[in-house]
Amino acid sequence: MTDLTRLTAAETAAAVASREVSAVEVAQAHLDRIAAVDDRVHAFLHVDAEGALAQAARVDAGELTGPLAGVPLALKDVLCTEGVPTTAGSRILEGWRPPYDATVTARLRAAGVVVLGKTNMDEFAMGSSTEHSAYGPTHNPWDLDRIPGGSGGGSAAAVAAYEAPLAIGTDTGGSIRQPSAVTGTVGVKPTYGGVSRYGLIAFSSSLDQAGPVARTVLDAALLHEAIGGHDPRDSTSIAAPVPPVVEAARQADVRGLRVGVVRELTGDGYEPGVQARFDEAVQALVELGATVTAVSCPHFVHALPAYYLIAPSEASSNLARFDAVRYGLRVGDDGERGLEEVMALTRAQGFGPEVKRRIVLGTYALSSGYYDAYYGQAQKVRTLITRDFTAAFAEADVLVSPTTPGVAFPLGAKLSDPLAMYRQDLATIPSNLYGGPAMSVPAGLSDGLPVGLQVMAPVQRDDLLYRVGAALEAARPFAPTPLQWETA
Amino acid sequence: MSQITRDEVAHLARLARLALADDELDGLAQQLDVILDAVAAIGQVTDAADVPPTTHAVPVENVTRPDVVTPSLPRDVVLAGAPEAEQDRFRVPRILDEEA
To answer: Which sign, positive or negative, has the C-alpha torsion A69, A73, A79, A81?
Structure first.
């Protein structure tokens, strides 16, 4: 019998639609898979078996139909799920059950997607390894002693370990793409405003964007289409149709496409094995009929400092909502202590070290006397980075780079050096600052570990990512996760 | 040169309502010094002087909707998530001093 956990989302949906298998069987196979391996991978913070089987039964009853009906999915724990625990990887929200669904969650439910549970993440999406989760790290299915990337390491690991064919991540500085690169999966940050942020627990509101994680480019496109589109509940949501991503993934055609290699995102600082796989993938695009040129984006070297001023500033403001009054933890309310003291005690106990570091950094960057030199200057540099993109897109239809400077590093290797951790996002941050879409697709292996190639496109041209990704996938099939630890 | 002192970190922590322990303050002062050193390089981007700031990736204009009442979340459902509720309200710790 076919192992249902190895099917793609498209294959699963077709099998369910033709009644070859039931959605309940598919859901149960994935729940069994989670029970068998998640003690070692730790991709999930919460598994909702009851909810998943109930949703699958509705699909089998014909109540819910569509291109992804009956397909299981792992949802990052930063998106609200009505009645189902949502922690954002933080102690401060331990045990909280949201009173409503995020728009992404609601659209998944309406599409007949079966949400298996909530995935692990760096606390409030701040990190590149999931080691900043208050509930312990996720392990990379390619090598359990290595990081699965972050912040969405749980989502990427769940997909790579065949615990789910699809997952949702969120990407503020690379939190979908970097985990995808190091787990050999496909991850897409849509155009900012392309997917609703309603019910997404905010980290940095001008940068946050939810998007798909999958094992194939077509699966990512199907999920992108299901969650995308205008939402009146998010005032930054784009009032235009989702770009034709599924059609682009099916075409997989790069003939005549102008591909720009970003000089500032290659060479120094990138591991030789990563650079070699990247160069080979670019060569493959040439063989498929694309034209490749080198482009320069001189301000990209300032993207990292700009990001580490803008994102913590916005976070310090957004995380003020954790006030020990409306939801979550409350510490030290003994009848003697006043409100402010209870608030300060609660936040000190409820937030982990990385979150505190960023709140204090952001508070500093926003304080009078420093505002112009830090936050204000970072916003101006953001404009220059956007202008670099605009100029580059006059010469090329898409830009490419390695997604990450290196392959997955060992757990613990960068935990005591925040700057080394921040540098993981060198290549992914520019697209967040600009707002354009970007994808990471597998580009082969270096020392047995996955390497990702990043494709970046102009705002609202998400379809171009899928053309390039699908063409590469067809020319250079992605390596399946070896899962040696399962048989060892 | 040191970018930030321990006293400054303690002040920022008070502003951000974080009751940090002494050892946390020591650690943060050191780490923030290194981080600020790295991000301070942004001041050297001289061609940013006459550039308008970007506050948002996509230009945002006022977004309005028809002034129609839609249902809110049920009160008991919202209060169920609160650390303390009383008489259909969020219960907060003491706000005023006794003598106030």
So the answer is: positive
